[in-house]
């Protein structure tokens, strides 16, 4: 049954999926000639308009923005320790960049316009080059007007393989995204509208896996799959229920964690976040099991069915080791760490929440609660970090924090707003050490942490990568509305 909406751009309509073959869930590997011959891998990416079959017939193809003519862009897969050289050509009618999300790159390679590089002009090229230091699941996307460029399809997966990967039957990537489509399967042009900016961002009405709306994903009883999930959506948060299967989380944002079942049985991914799962296929031959997104209460929908082959691969899944080797991350020393407080304000209902929590209210809300709301709704500045809304258009941003290089630091983040914020720090991975004062059970290393309304989250890391680094909400409309700043490591 088709779940492509007709057309309904309301929250109750953002459900997804339509009939497509299981093969469309698999991403093709970007082929590299002489893969074992050299440590330097060269890739060419061209950002340009294209046409892609997001939804099945009778809707036809959808105009989108693509890397190498596809959405997602090509899977780039290298080995840990390789050097990656990527030549990016800009075939768009506007400037662009490429950010290597979660990869600890040198500052000049981070892809932030007017901060780490000049934007790539129309018809121009830029070469990114860096070492693949950490193994894991990463992705790439523009940082220039990302609320529209990512929203039109510019993104792709970057996989850095371990020297000795864990043994599985298949290594599979699902790049998750949602799209705001009209009833003729065109991308709605209402990017950056004030309602999205002041609320929970651009939530779409059609969800895709690897650029398609698949009905099923083919599996076999007894099969073990390493499933790499990437949330490339502007704003949608996924909470995936695997219908009686018991996925085990082995990595978050590319960094290994102690293998564990997801909290509450749901794999929750905010925008830009990733998770590596080990999923054993325990269903009976010929059966189907639905993977359901349950994050938004009352708005649950079937994402895709696990469709079992008629013959099993084996009677039960193998008992192979699943613990991933650690990456070379420095461990923060909490007893010697500096402490830094960060408060998020703004958005619709922001003054009410801030007042309840006793948190500082940003300067965009003068004249009382109602006056502040009217002022914010007529302004592009909707969100504040420590009372300051960033103005990316000015290209002049002073550091919000300056951290001593090679020292340990704790950042305590308080979300005094009514909305979730996936907070992303460039150039580093950090440990999530507490939530609302309670130590986290897995002390996971991440580069993007989802902070719930009224929640306080503490992260800790060693600031070992020098430069000016972006720190921002990865709900891309929140970033555009001011929720970003610069953390200087010097």
TrEMBL record:
Q: Name one GO molecular function term.
A: ferroxidase activity
Which key words are in the record? Answer: Metal-binding, Oxidoreductase, Signal
SUPFAM superfamilies linked to this entry: Cupredoxins
Domain Plastocyanin-like: residue ranges: 62-163, 171-283, 393-489
Q: Which residues form the signal peptide?
A: 1-37
Broadest EC class?
A: oxidoreductase
Is the Transmembrane keyword given for this protein? no
Q: What is its EC number?
A: 1.16.3.1
Which InterPro entries does the record associate with it?
Cu-oxidase-like_N, Cu-oxidase_2nd, Cu-oxidase_C, Cu-oxidase_fam, Cu_oxidase_CS, Cu_oxidase_Cu_BS, Cupredoxin, TAT_signal
Report what the protein is called.
Multicopper oxidase MmcO
């Amino acid at each position: 049954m088709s779940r492509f909406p007709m057309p309904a751009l309301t929250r109750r309509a953002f459900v997804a999926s339509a009939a497509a073959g299981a093969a469309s869930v698999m991403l093709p590997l970007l082929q590299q000639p002489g893969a074992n011959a050299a440590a330097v891998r060269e890739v060419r990416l061209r950002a340009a308009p294209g046409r892609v079959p997001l939804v099945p017939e009778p809707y036809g193809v959808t105009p989108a923005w693509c890397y190498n003519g596809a959405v997602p862009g090509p899977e780039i897969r290298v080995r840990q320790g390789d050097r990656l050289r990527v030549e990016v050509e800009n075939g768009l009618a506007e400037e662009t960049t490429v950010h290597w999300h979660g990869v600890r790159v040198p500052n000049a390679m981070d892809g932030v316009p007017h901060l780490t590089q000049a934007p790539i002009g129309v018809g121009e090229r830029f070469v990114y080059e860096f070492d693949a230091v950490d193994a894991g699941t990463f992705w790439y996307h523009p940082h220039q007007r990302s609320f529209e460029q990512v929203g039109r399809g510019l993104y792709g997966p970057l996989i850095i393989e371990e020297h000795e990967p864990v043994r599985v039957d298949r290594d599979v990537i699902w790049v998750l995204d949602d799209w705001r489509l009209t009833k003729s399967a065109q991308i709605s042009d209402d990017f950056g509208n004030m309602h999205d900016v002041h609320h929970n961002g651009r939530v779409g009405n059609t969800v895709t896996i690897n650029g398609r709306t698949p009905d099923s994903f083919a599996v076999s009883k007894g099969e073990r799959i390493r499933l790499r999930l990437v949330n490339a959506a502007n704003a949608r948060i996924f909470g995936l229920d695997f219908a009686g299967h018991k996925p085990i989380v082995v990595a978050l944002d590319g960094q290994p964690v102690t293998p564990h079942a997801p909290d509450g049985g749901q794999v929750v991914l905010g925008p830009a976040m990733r998770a590596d799962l080990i999923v054993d296929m325990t269903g009976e031959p010929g059966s189907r099991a639905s993977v359901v997104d349950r994050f938004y209460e009352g708005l649950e929908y079937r994402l895709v069915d696990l469709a079992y082959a008629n013959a099993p691969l084996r009677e039960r899944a193998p008992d192979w080791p699943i613990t991933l080797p650690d990456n070379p991350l420095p461990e923060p020393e909490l007893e010697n760490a500096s402490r830094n407080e960060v408060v998020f304000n703004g958005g619709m209902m922001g003054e009410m929440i801030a007042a309840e929590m006793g948190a500082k209210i940003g300067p965009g809300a003068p004249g009382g609660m109602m006056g502040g709301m009217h002022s914010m709704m007529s302004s592009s500045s909707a969100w504040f970090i420590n009372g300051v809304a960033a103005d990316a258009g000015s290209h002049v941003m002073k550091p919000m924090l300056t951290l001593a290089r090679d020292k340990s630091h704790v950042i305590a983040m308080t979300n005094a707003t009514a909305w979730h914020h996936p907070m992303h720090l460039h150039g580093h991975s950090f440990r999530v050490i507490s939530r609302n004062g309670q130590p986290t059970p897995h002390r996971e290393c991440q580069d993007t942490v989802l902070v719930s309304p009224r929640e306080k989250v503490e992260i800790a890391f060693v600031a070992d990568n020098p430069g000016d680094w972006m720190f921002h909400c990865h709900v891309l409309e929140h970033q555009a509305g001011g929720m970003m700043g610069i953390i200087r490591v010097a």
